[in-house]
Amino acid sequence: MKLPPRPVRRFVIWPLPLLASALYLATVPVVLIAAFVLSYLLPGHLRGLRVLGLATVYLVAEAAATVAAFLLWAAAGFGWKLRSPVFQRAHYDVLRLTLAVVVGLGRRLFTLEIAADDQDLPGDDGDPTTDESPLVVMSRHAGPADSILLLHEVMSWQGRQPRIVAKELLQLDPVIDIYLNRLPNLFISSQPAAGKRPVDAIRTLASTMTARDALVIFPEGGNFTPQRRLRAIDRLREGGNEAAAARAAKLRNVLPPRPAGTMAALNAALDADAVFVAHTGLDQLATVGDLWWSIPTRKTIELAWFVVHADRIPRTAAAQEEMLFQAWEAIDAWIEDRR
């Protein structure tokens, strides 16, 4: 799928949350009755009502954040001072509040418990919630739900300001499109223009980080699926890297990491600590259908990380690749233990 050009997104896609909110308000009695009927007919405790609740929270949050973005644009001299520190912080504050609302109410609606622990993975060298260094946060990728929870967690680490490396199609979401393009983030195209290398863009993004910033990157390059796992192993073999392919074949819950982007970030921000993040519990929620059929009565999402301080990060390419692969092997084993 090709991303529509920015003018189309601005005038066609950006207003959609407001239009959808107006339509929802006009039809809410009918929607509520339908949700009650579905909850009665289908298995699961109030399945229809809880899905409706989550959709309502997400829709209201999208609409409110879109309106806030317009007000910030107007207050910044109709875009003149959007890049100033004051308005950059204001955009982060709106994102932090939006994520807190969506995650908080989502946890209540679906009886979710988030168990965060920085002691479950080997090799821990610190605590990202207290250190005063920039961070390069490397997480496994298992769907949109995990990305939302990860960003909420990172932004709760003493007001960290994430710089996200994400796929360009995420810009189809109006709030992501507006806010992340106003802030220092990077959208990666599956077909970059000639002369534009994603690795160079990641290096530039990481090179200007301050102690409050955290660059968030997903070294796997996409959500885990069995098919992608097999393709990744084949890609390593075709590249003549039989040893890495053999190690990758032992990974059951994650894809083998692609090191280029991560290494570019680590070498562009030499004072940044490395944070490796593992999580499990929302692995299968990639579509609306997945969400519908996996609604729990009670579910625990487990989250763990370990930190390698900047002065302990190896600086040779081979050693950095080995550090990243060992981290992914530890994450894979951690997930396997919890399944």
What is the number of strand segments?
A: 7
SSE succession: HHHHEEHEHEHEHHHEHEH
Q: Strand-residue fraction?
A: 5-15%
Which outline best applies?
globular
Strand order of the largest sheet: 1-7-6-2-5-3-4
Low-confidence stretches: none
* Mean pLDDT metric: 86
Fraction of helical residues: 40-55%
Secondary-structure-based class equals alpha/beta
Quickly count the helices: 12
The biggest sheet amounts to: 7 strands, mixed
Keywords:
339 residues, 53% helix, single chain, alpha/beta, seven-stranded mixed sheet
Question: What is the secondary structure topology, with strand pairs?
Answer:
Layout lengths: L5 H8 L2 H26 L5 H29 L9 H25 L2 E6 L17 E5 L4 H12 L5 E7 L6 H9 L3 E3 L9 H10 L5 E5 L8 H13 L3 H8 L9 H10 L4 E8 L7 H6 L5 E10 L8 H22 L1
Parallel strand pairs: 1-7, 2-5, 2-6, 3-4, 3-5
Antiparallel strand pairs: 6-7
Descriptive account of the structure:
With 339 residues, the protein is an alpha/beta fold. It starts with 5 loop residues before the first helix and ends with a helix. The longest helix has 29 residues, at 47-75. The chain contains twelve helices and seven strands. Helix 2 runs antiparallel to helix 3 (47-75). A seven-stranded mixed beta sheet has the order 1-7-6-2-5-3-4, with helices on both faces.
